[in-house]
Please model this.
Amino acid sequence: MTGDVSSLEDLLAALEEASAHLGLTAQARTAPVRSFLAGPPVVRVVGPPHAERAAVAECLTSDLPSAQVLEAAPAVPDPEPLWDVAVLVTPADRALSLIEERFIADAAAGHRAVLVLVSRMSVLGDERAQAEARRELERYRLGPLLKTRQIPWFYLDESPPVCDAALAKRINAVALREGGHQRAARVFLMRQTDELIQASAGLLDARRAELDRFSALQTQLGAQRASVYESVRTSVLAALDRLRSDEEGLYGSVDAVMNMTEAWLDSNGLIPWADVEYPLRRAQTALTAGLGTLVANCASTLRADLGRVARMLDEGLQELGLRPAGLPNIAVTWALPALEESMARLREADPSPVLSAVRQVMQQRLADAQRKNRDKAADPAKESGQTMRLTKTTWRSGGLPPGRIPSASASVTSPKGCHPLRRLTKRGKRRCVPPCCSSSTPILSRASARCWA
Amino acid sequence: MLQFLDAYFEPRIREVLGLAEEWLSRAGRTAVEDALAEIDRALGRAEAELTERHAWSGAYSRLLTLRTAIG
Model:
């Protein structure tokens, strides 16, 4: 509402506009005012029916032909406040009852024009008694209640009768002084505005509750934001840890391959060569698998977290009667071409050439050992009972690329009933140690398992 | 064999690790921020819609002003 709203027309327009914003129809509230403003002065005759209210109304109707005279019982608040002058007719034997007193007080508070007519004075006795009663009325009732409010009063039974042209003239003057229904219209509009404000209070409560819910949703989502960051960070660290762990596994698998070559030699080549290569192959497979899931796992974690946050958002919006955002399948760009190319190069890394070289060396070693054994069998006295031990020196002199050398040595000849691969316990006793019991060796192939049976 | 691994695998693994760390620290963070920004925009739209729904609260203020003007 902007500008001057002091005129009645402006007030009506402002009330209608505010009502429309509130989703309420103001026409029913403003139409009576517009009708009242366009009509003649309205005189409201108020009082109990037995107080000669009807007679007064009839008298005023004839004396004020240009005015609209209406009758009503006194009520607070006045259900029909659109009047210019109220003539309160009160019986002398019950002058200014409680409801009439409240009506007067209410009208005076709104600066409304009110006149009081005291009727039925004759019930108080003869003229002398009436004069006495009038003094008492004025001293105890009329004076205290009306004088302070500057409300005039008259006695209906007076001679000559009060209800005559003089009273009509006075009423007319008051009505004209009101300046075209201004006071009545403002009182009416004020009441309508109060009712609208009261009706809006419920809407305000609902608004406050909705805003509180929205604020809670914002707080909840704020906490989830931090949770998403933390979750993705954790998954990222886990992915990197796995990659590093797979890398260590790859280097650690060399020890296992070396151990397996010993076992392969001790078994006279009975163990399938694939079992020898298996630790390195497995480590490379683990590394490749880790690469395949490196980005996918993080992306999956982020999508799941974002989906949870998006669902939380949509549920909150739906609770508020708002359109869902529709973000559960939020798109995330993960592309990093350089990383993809690098991972592809690593996947393509093939250890077969070095494993083939190792196999050739081992085959040569096996052939040499078998030849020596045959020689020993032909000459039992020579080196009888001795065991050939493959030491670090033998490995190095065997032409393998320098690197980690197995710490354990193995016997080529095996005790009866035990696998050729033997290791000394800490107490120096021999015991069978199946390769599959070693953490660095793979599960043997079926052929190897048969060998253990 | 270790020499082979050093020469053949190690550079490739280092390259992947470096790029993965870069992605996870830069591209991944950007992806998270982009997605959360999308959620923030949705929240902003919802707030605007809620404000529009409660535009009558301005009318309420006007009623209070009107009440004073009438009085």
User: Anything to note?
Assistant: The longest strand of chain A covers residues 85-91. Chain A has a mean pLDDT of 75. Residues 182-266 of chain A form the longest helix (85 residues).
